[in-house]
């Protein structure tokens, strides 16, 4: 009999009833160190007082009003995002996949309104993940995500990750945009080198294409800059944001330049819940913390510390681990043992990591992780690796 919750997830037998900072309490009372943060969502950790306050204050004022009316919290969050980024304008969504939908629509509408309606194709890369909507799975294009769901939304050209020559060769009169994650998340924490992001920006400029960055997982302070592309010194035309921006409340956004957004006039797009007062009140509180240079400096310091200790961990367990990679507090450990065995051993040792493609475990802790949490993380990961080693020996 089918479970009452549609069984599309292979869930661990863990049920968390409370969270505080980087810690989650299981129903049986055990405390787990959360290095997954809901897959890069709880940017300020669990139950951050400022977010709890923002949400409860807003809940007592007004929960929902339609986008047919002014929403001051939405205006305030849009202003903050515009002030701190390349963007001139923002549309709010409830998720990353909805941000993907709009990014694709926006790019196509831009060229349509410029009198180039043939420009509909978007170049994407293998290993990418842009959400589970029809546009999202067609953009990623992997068999795993698309099999059985055809006919797929057309207009995506899939290239090999890192193949810059392939990009230039793939551009035709139909090409509208390049869509890329500055650091692939689901694909196994694969950062795009700064030089490559710069080159993609140049290619877009040379060919009159739009550069769309998917910063759903790598944005909002995760890499130690407010947005990951800042490391490369470039700006996109359109950017997808979600996860961390809501700190755990469902919230996403598409940020764009005035030019790229020029086709999106009244009536061309909408959302019932996107930009609702609750989400935007929380988003404002997240931005007030994460956009602070002192906060980002701390993220970088802690990222350096964690990475250094992880390098030691990998060296101590050469049969389990291969290498550390990533950027800021978006780290991956490429495993030699099966990554899922390491994740499961982590559960036994009360530390949460997240599996990714390419046999990687992801560490996406709250950006508010403390130095003590880092020390504890290494102790627990060390015990988890030792457990996997024992199994390898006895197997
Ligand atoms: C890079 C990236 N884009 C898009 C998405 C989809 O976001 P959501 O799950 O909020 O729809 C994700 C989710 O993991 C993601 O990592």
Topology overview:
Blueprint: E1 16-20, E2 23-26, E3 31-34, H1 37-40, H2 49-61, H3 72-84, E4 89-93, H4 96-113, E5 121-125, H5 134-140, H6 143-146, E6 156-159, H7 164-170, E7 175-180, E8 183-184, E9 190-191, H8 194-207, E10 210-214, E11 238-241, E12 252-256, H9 277-290, H10 293-316, E13 321-327, E14 330-335, H11 339-348, E15 351-352, E16 354-356, E17 360-363, H12 371-394
Bound molecules: pyridoxal-5'-phosphate.
Pyridoxal-5'-phosphate is lined by residues 39, 95-97, 100, 129-131, 181, 185-186, 214, 216-217, 242.
In brief:
The protein has 395 residues and is of the alpha/beta class. It has 12 helices and 17 strands.
What does this structure look like?
There is one protein chain. The protein is α/β, with parallel strands linked by helices. Strands 4-12-11-10-7-5-6 form a 7-stranded mixed beta sheet, sandwiched between helices. Strands 1-2-3-15 form a 4-stranded mixed beta sheet. The chain has a 4-stranded antiparallel beta sheet with strand order 13-14-17-16, covered by helices on one side. The chain is globular, with a radius of gyration of 21 Å. It has helices at 37-40, 49-61, 72-84, 96-113, 134-140, 143-146, 164-170, 194-207, 277-290, 293-316, 339-348, 371-394; strands at residues 16-20, 23-26, 31-34, 89-93, 121-125, 156-159, 175-180, 183-184, 190-191, 210-214, 238-241, 252-256, 321-327, 330-335, 351-352, 354-356, 360-363. Helix content is 38%, strand content 18%. The protein has 12 helices and 17 strands. The mean pLDDT is 98. Residues 39, 95-97, 100, 129-131, 181, 185-186, 214, 216-217, 242 line the site of pyridoxal-5'-phosphate.
């Amino acid at each position: 009999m089918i479970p009452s919750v549609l069984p599309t997830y292979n869930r661990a037998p863990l049920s968390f009833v409370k969270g505080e900072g980087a810690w989650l309490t299981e129903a049986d009372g055990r405390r787990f160190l959360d290095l997954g943060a809901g897959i890069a969502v709880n940017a300020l950790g669990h139950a951050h007082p400022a977010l709890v306050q923002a949400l409860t204050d807003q809940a007592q004022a007004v929960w929902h009003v339609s986008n047919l009316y002014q929403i001051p919290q939405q205006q305030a969050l849009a202003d903050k995002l515009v002030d701190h980024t390349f963007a001139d304008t923002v549309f709010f969504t409830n998720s990353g996949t909805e941000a993907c939908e709009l990014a694709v629509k926006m790019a196509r509408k831009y060229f349509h309104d410029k009198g180039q309606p043939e420009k509909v194709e978007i170049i994407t890369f293998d290993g990418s993940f842009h959400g589970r909507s029809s546009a999202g799975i067609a953009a990623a294009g992997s068999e795993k995500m698309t099999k059985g769901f055809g006919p797929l939304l057309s207009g995506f050209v899939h290239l090999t990750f890192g193949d810059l020559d392939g990009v230039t060769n793939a551009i035709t009169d139909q090409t509208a945009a390049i869509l890329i994650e500055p650091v692939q998340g689901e694909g196994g924490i694969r950062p795009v080198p700064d030089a490559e992001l710069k080159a993609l920006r140049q290619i877009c400029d040379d060919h009159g294409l739009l550069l769309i960055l998917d910063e759903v997982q790598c944005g909002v302070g995760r890499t130690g800059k407010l947005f990951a592309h800042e490391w490369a010194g470039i700006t996109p035309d359109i950017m997808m944001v979600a996860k961390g921006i809501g700190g755990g409340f469902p919230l996403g956004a598409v940020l764009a330049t005035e030019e790229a957004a020029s086709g999106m006039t009244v009536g061309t797009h909408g959302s019932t819940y996107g930009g609702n007062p609750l989400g935007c009140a929380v988003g404002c509180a997240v931005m007030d913390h994460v956009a602070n240079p002192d906060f980002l400096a701390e993220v970088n310091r802690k990222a350096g510390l964690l990475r250094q200790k992880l390098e030691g961990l990998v060296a101590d367990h050469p049969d389990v681990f291969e290498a550390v990679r990533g950027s800021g507090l978006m780290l991956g450990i490429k495993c030699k043992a099966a990554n899922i065995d390491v994740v499961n051993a982590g559960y036994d040792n009360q530390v949460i990591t997240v599996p990714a493609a390419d046999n990687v475990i992801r560490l996406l802790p709250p950006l508010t992780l403390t130095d003590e949490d880092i020390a504890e993380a290494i102790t627990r990961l060390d015990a988890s690796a030792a457990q996997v080693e024992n199994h390898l020996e006895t197997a």
